[in-house]
């Protein structure tokens, strides 16, 4: 019967190397993704953050701005100018909620809804650009979602401490 021997612990200095940082690997991958998205979204006339807004609206339809910010993990200071640019481009409309005047809802215009058809090619081209199989992409997404949940829980715990 063989037992696995754990690898020797890395010296403390190795933990501080740039290449040893998970956060840097995520940062570098994010920048690489943004570069690919920049090229693919140019034909749609969207930036990556605008694309994310449109994804939510295509999926959910009319959405309160507050909920949109929650889904995209964006604060109102970042979201407001983004929505103004999309509205100026004629892709979305902002309106006061009929149920609650304090709430503003956002929804795609006819032009914004039509843009969805042209955007259908983006996920396929991104998947191709990664060189990953569909299974690998799903596994990566699941792992990143677990990481986000764990980090959110840690952040919550540290902000609740005195």
Which properties best describe this structure?
162 residues, mainly alpha, Arc Repressor Mutant, subunit A, 2 domains, three-stranded antiparallel sheet, 3 strands, globular
Distance linking N and C termini:
50 Å
Q: Indicate how many domains the architecture comprises.
A: 2
Low-pLDDT parts are none
CATH class of the largest domain: Mainly Alpha
- The mean pLDDT is 90
Number of helices: 8
User: What's the CATH H-level homologous superfamily of the largest domain?
Assistant: Winged helix-like DNA-binding domain superfamily/Winged helix DNA-binding domain
What does this structure look like?
The protein is mainly alpha-helical and 162 residues long. The protein has two domains: 26-131, Arc Repressor Mutant, subunit A; 133-162. Helix content is 65%, strand content 7%. Strand 2 and strand 3 (104-108) form a beta hairpin. Helix 2 (22-42) packs across helix 7. It is globular. Keywords: Cytoplasm, DNA-binding, Transcription, Transcription regulation. This is MarR family transcriptional regulator. Pfam families: Staph_reg_Sar_Rot (PF22381).
């Amino acid at each position: 019967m063989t037992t696995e021997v754990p690898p020797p612990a890395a010296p403390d200095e190795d933990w501080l190397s740039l290449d040893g940082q998970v956060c840097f690997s995520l940062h570098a991958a994010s920048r690489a993704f943004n570069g690919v998205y920049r090229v693919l979204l140019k034909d749609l006339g969207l930036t990556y953050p605008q694309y994310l807004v449109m994804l939510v609206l295509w999926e959910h339809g009319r959405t309160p701005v507050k909920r949109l910010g929650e889904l995209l993990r964006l604060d109102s200071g970042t979201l407001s100018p983004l929505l103004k640019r999309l509205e100026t481009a004629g892709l979305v409309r902002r309106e006061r909620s009929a149920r609650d005047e304090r709430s503003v809802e956002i929804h795609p215009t006819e032009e914004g809804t039509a843009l969805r058809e042209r955007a259908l090619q983006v996920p396929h081209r991104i998947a191709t650009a990664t060189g990953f199989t569909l299974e690998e992409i799903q596994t990566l997404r699941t792992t990143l979602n677990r990481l986000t949940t764990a980090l959110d829980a840690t952040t919550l715990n540290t902000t609740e401490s005195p």
